Amino acid sequence: MGEVLTIVYLFYMFLALYFLLIFILTFIKNKNEMFAVPSVKKNYTLSIVIPAHNEEDSIRGTVESVLNSSYNNIAEVIIVTNACTDNTLRISKELARKYKKIRIIDTSIPSKANALNEAIKIAKGELIAVVDADSYPDREAINSMIGFFQDEKVGAVTTRVQVRDSDNFIRKMQSIEYKVIAFTRKLLGFLDAIYVTPGPLAIYRKSALTHIGGFDTKNMTEDIEATWHLVYEGYKIRMSFVSRVTTVSPNTVKKWFKQRIRWNIGGMQTILKYRKSFFKRGMLGFFILPFFAFSLILGIIGLSIFIYRLLRRLLLSYLSTKLSIEAQTAILKFQDINLNPSILNFFGVILFVLGLIFIFYSLKIVNNKFNEKDGIFNVFFYSLFYITVYPIILITSIYKFIKGKYTWR
Fold it and tell me: Which of 40, 80, 174, 389 is the most exposed place for a label (fewest CB within 10 A)?
């Protein structure tokens, strides 16, 4: 068992170091292009779609933020209220009376993908921007994304997502996480390997969405599935790092945990749907699928090794202590104390230190560029604890996925 565990552990270390090295080398090669934005040479017509389910507290602010955009060719703003039981529809109608560009679709199906597909059918724009009803694009955000569509092969453009109000500890942790994710996603863009266009703000070429048949109504993460589908069909996905959208993030551990369960289940649905593309279909099969799948596997292996080693140590300590008491011998002798680290522990420490350096460096780049900062304690806590709970989320997600015990909300 010990030899098998060692092989598994070394394989785990190899994969983790491999992906980390890819990110480091990609950054070194493209560091001067991180914040580059193509100039806007064509004034595309743009439809903005805002799917809203019970968003009475934020819908007004979201609509006004998109209408305040510096982009001057917004053809319409389509609000899709789906199965709302609060005042979202009433507020939307008030906004429609105030702003002539607003159109409203009211549906009874509580599905974001369905809401988006209904909007796509009537959208006038050459491009379609999707903005969650609890998100707020900066004034220059859209303008900084449009230029990427000069390349006719670009099917979608994503942006930097940030937590809107870091007013408690869990949101401060997510703020750090979102910055690291944004930095990593930009690096993936240089590899043609962006695997998600997040809901807070993403712009799609309408013809590309039509080509893939819109969003998958059965997937828990329609944005991940749509991105993979676009890449499967040969489209490119790009990211504007200088543009920004803020979004309302979960403010309790329970809400955060539920959101991450949905993200992981949606990811597993997408892996299952495109499983036949492994090592086929360009970057989807040769990088995105393996990267996404191995990321899940690494988390599971990491938790399994930790639990095994912990239980084994506890069991051996219990048996040793019990035997010593019965034999009336010393429970612990000086020569039994082993202060020599194993090679496995050494690799584990190296991997953790490199990961920590990557986190600090990515935060430094983002914060220096946008004049932001994060408390040193929060960064350490994020590194030491926050990311260690992900294996638990993965195990829970897999259980729910296998049992079929999940819903979008």
Answer: 389
Does a structural domain hold residue 158? yes
Domain count, the chain: 1
Q: What's the CA gap between 49 and 79, in Å, rounded?
A: 6
Does some domain include residue 7? no
Instruction: Kindly report the CATH number assigned to the domain that includes residue 137.
Output: 3.90.550.10
pTM for the predicted model, two decimal places: 0.88
How far apart, in whole angstroms, are the C-alpha atoms of residue 6 and residue 146? Answer: 50
Which is nearest to 228 in space by CA: 158, 296, 290, 288?
288
Count other C-beta atoms under 10 Å from residue 63's C-beta.
25
Q: How far is CA 363 from CA 103, 259, 359, 368, 374, in A?
A: 40, 23, 6, 8, 8
pLDDT digits (tens, 9 = 90+) for 16-70: 788 888 998 999 999 999 999 998 889 999 999 999 999 999 999 999 999 999 9
Find the angle CA(391)-CA(381)-CA(220) to the nearest 5 degrees: 40
Within 10 angstroms of residue 408's Cβ, the number of other Cβ atoms is 16
Q: CA-CA distances (angstroms) from residue 93 to 103, 111, 313, 331?
A: 9, 21, 63, 76
